[in-house]
Design goal:
The protein is an alpha+beta fold. Helices cover about 25% and strands about 20% of the residues.
Length: about 200
């Protein structure tokens, strides 16, 4: 069904699954860089607050929950460090990291923009996500909510747009894998988003 069981079992098993399918030459003791660090070219397009950044772990598609692994939303450009800040929901909760750090975890990275939403409204979406800093991680991937006590990565991005623009960027209302939740791949597949930049270091 277009537009919308828990992904919790997948999330809990993901480190083991990824370890089994990881390239033998790439490894790291950092749980967020299980394949080492990837060096992507910095995006050569004009970015704006509210743009969505999504990463792919090598062989993520073999886990059964889609090609794309993790989503975040650009908050603002910080000229003091020369990088964009990304709001993302990690297992430690909602945090801010740099775009370069975000990209370094993934073999492929895509940056999306939401159609028909003005600069002022996408900035509101980014600020809304930023206002959730410190919220805990949501382990119930079967559902999604706009104003909840916790968020998983793609839920936070989806909720930021629903709360401020009313645009639903979840491509499928329901799927057998994650029920009424929203996966990163569903944001990529949604007709309301389009690609403005893409990098794939492994060529898949």
């Amino acid at each position: 069904m277009r537009k919308g069981r828990s992904i919790l079992p997948w999330l809990l098993a993901l480190p083991l699954i990824l370890a089994l399918v990881a390239p033998a030459s790439a490894s790291s003791s950092d749980s967020y860089h299980p394949y080492g660090y990837f060096t992507h070219p910095y995006p050569n397009v004009a970015l704006r607050p509210g743009d969505i950044v999504i990463g792919h772990y090598p062989n993520q598609q073999l886990t059964g929950i889609g090609y794309w692994s993790h989503a975040g939303i650009l908050y603002k450009y910080d000229p003091t460090i020369g990088d964009w800040l990304v709001v993302e929901a990690l297992f430690e909760g909602v945090r801010v990291n740099t775009l370069r750090e975000f990209m370094s975890r993934y073999s492929a990275v895509i940056i999306l923009r939401v159609r028909g939403v003005s600069d002022s409204y996408v900035a509101k979406a980014a600020s809304w996500a930023y206002s959730k800093l410190g919220y805990p991680y949501d382990y119930n991937g079967y559902y999604k909510q706009v104003n909840g006590p916790s968020y998983y990565c793609s839920e936070l991005v989806w909720a930021a747009y629903m709360a401020t623009t009313g645009v639903d960027i979840d491509a499928y209302y329901w799927t057998p894998v994650n029920g009424y939740g929203v996966l990163p791949s569903e944001i990529v597949d949604d007709s309301d988003t389009y690609t403005i930049w893409y990098s794939d270091l492994l060529g898949f």
